[in-house]
Write a structure and sequence with these properties.
alpha+beta, 98 residues, 2 helices
């Protein structure tokens, strides 16, 4: 299975091609087969996606699952517990860290 991911031009959010447009949910990602690059060229030319690319994914009962770890992190979030990560030195970081 081949799916398309990229970033929303306005928000920077990770987005997935759903067959009709873009979704923030990987569960909505559509299998593009061998049409991925062609779809991406149209979407890129129309300025509807930033940094889009076609990836391999496995079809699972829960929906597409990216094969590569980088894209799994994009889809599902960090791979470590937030309480184990480094904390910013800025005490006001909570207001600007996503």
């Amino acid at each position: 299975m081949r799916i398309i991911t990229g970033n929303d031009l306005k928000t920077g959010a990770v987005i997935w091609w759903d067959g009709q447009g873009w979704s923030r949910h990987i569960e909505d990602a559509a299998d593009t087969g061998d049409q991925g690059e062609q779809i991406l060229a149209v979407e890129d030319a129309a300025c509807r996606v930033n940094g889009g690319y076609v990836i391999d994914a496995e079809k699972t009962p829960e929906g597409p699952r990216p094969v590569h770890i980088k894209d799994r992190v994009r889809a599902y979030g960090p791979t470590v517990r937030s309480d184990l990560s480094l904390k910013p030195a800025d005490p006001n970081a909570g207001s600007w860290v996503i």
